[in-house]
Amino acid sequence: MARDRAWAVLAAAIAFGPAIAQAQDMKRCDQLAAYYDRYGGGRVSEGRMPVGRIERELGYDACRKGDFARGVRLLEEAIRKTGFNVPPA
Asked: Rounded to the nearest 5°, which phi and psi values hold at 67?
């Protein structure tokens, strides 16, 4: 009985592990995008697009498509371009 329960827990961890990881990755993307929007997204120079805005949009789009590594990298780049440090995860 305990052995069957252990196998069931292991099977659930294997089945849901990637989904949990993706949710955490998307949470990081949301965090970085919100940080950019709050602290750096409003910086406009001479009526131009805010610094890092393209990277922010491309990064968040990559995250929505499941390319979290690229998305996080671009979002972090957008934050750095505004002169802020990337917040810890």
From this structure: -95, 75
CB burial of residue 46 (10 Å; 0-12, 13-18, 19+): exposed
pLDDT tens digits for 42-84?
665 566 778 899 999 999 999 999 999 999 999 999 999 999 9
Identify whether the C-beta of residue 71 lies closer than 8 Å to the C-beta of residue 59: yes
Q: What does pTM read for this prediction?
A: 0.71
Which amino acid is present at 35?
A: Y
**How many C-beta atoms surround the C-beta of residue 27 within 10 A?**
11
Q: Give the Cα-Cα-Cα angle 24, 29, 30 (nearest 5 degrees).
A: 95
